[in-house]
Amino acid sequence: MATLDGLEGELLRIGSTYSGKWTYALTDMSSGQKIGHRQDDVMPTASLIKVPVLTALYRAVHEGRLRLTDRIRYGDEHRCLGSGVLSRLTPGVEMTVRDAAVLMIIISDNSATNIVIDLVGLDQVNETMRCFGLGRTTIFQRLGDTKAGLDARKMSVSTAGEMTRLLELIARHEAVPPEASEDMLRIMRRQDYRHELSRLLPWNEMNMLENHTENWVAEKGGSFLNGIRTSGAIFNGSRGKFVMSVFCEGGTGPGTGRESEGNRLNGELGYAAWRALAAG
Questions:
Q1: Are 61 and 180 in contact (CB under 8 A)?
Q2: Of 76, 88, 91, 245, which has the maximum CB count within 10 A?
């Protein structure tokens, strides 16, 4: 098993070939030790901001302001192109609040995200992050709002250190009570898209790992223009558990879409950490 110092060196070596800016933070849940690279630099989140939105939703439910079983209606005001399926459906589709949260995370549905944002409130998402001591993690607008143009830094930002800290709080059942925390983890473990941190793990045709009750990844990723690729994950394996976030921006290396340089970097970093800290 590699030491954390050894892993830190390996991650820096892997990242050294990336053509843009990259940051990461990692916490070993067993020892509490932390490593990182430029982990306090503010970076655009793309869809990784949906984890703070999910957390704020579950806090609102815990505080009695919402119920996951409440029924809501998808309307024109929620419609946002890009990832997801709701924007392709006829307005008027009904679902529960939890259904919207599931769509937001497992297929990164932008319209479902706007439903959740409208239920919780932009300011409340940011206030929830401040309550956790995460002063830089901020969402500035609903998805699809045109005032930011194509500047992802005007949409939402965070740092690798703060995003990793949020994931740690979720994993330790400290963001919301244990039952709600476990429900958040269930949703994040059902992720359909394994394009970033966990992309090189041995997923089977059912999108599960061998001995999946013992080996699992709860995660969310994001992508945008200018090589922005982001990912945050809780890795649980037979030898250990760790949380990790990676942010990439400006990469111009070969590859596009899911095979972009940033996605490949995320995968190599995540796989190195998995082998060192968790895999049997």
A1: yes
A2: 245
Q: How confident is the model at residue 88 (pLDDT cuts 50, 70, 90)?
A: very high
Which helix (H) or strand (E) covers residue 101, if one does?
A: helix 97-106
pLDDT digits (tens, 9 = 90+) for 124-137: 999 999 999 999 99
Question: Containing H/E element for 218?
Answer: strand 216-224
Spell out a b/e string for 123-134, using b for 16 or more CB atoms within 10 Å of the CB, else e: ebbbebbeebeb
Count of CB atoms within 10 A of residue 273's CB?
27
Q: Is the pLDDT of residue 1 over 50?
A: no
Assigned fold of 4-277: Beta-lactamase (3.40.710)
Q: Where are the domains of the chain?
A: 4-277
Instruction: Tell me the C-alpha distance between 206 and 61, whole Å.
Output: 31
Task: Report the run of H or E that residue 112 belongs to, with start and end.
Answer: helix 110-120
Give the phi and the psi of residue 52 in degrees, each rounded to 5: -60, -40
Q: Are strands 71-73 and 94-96 parallel, antiparallel or unpaired?
A: antiparallel
Strand partners, 95: 72
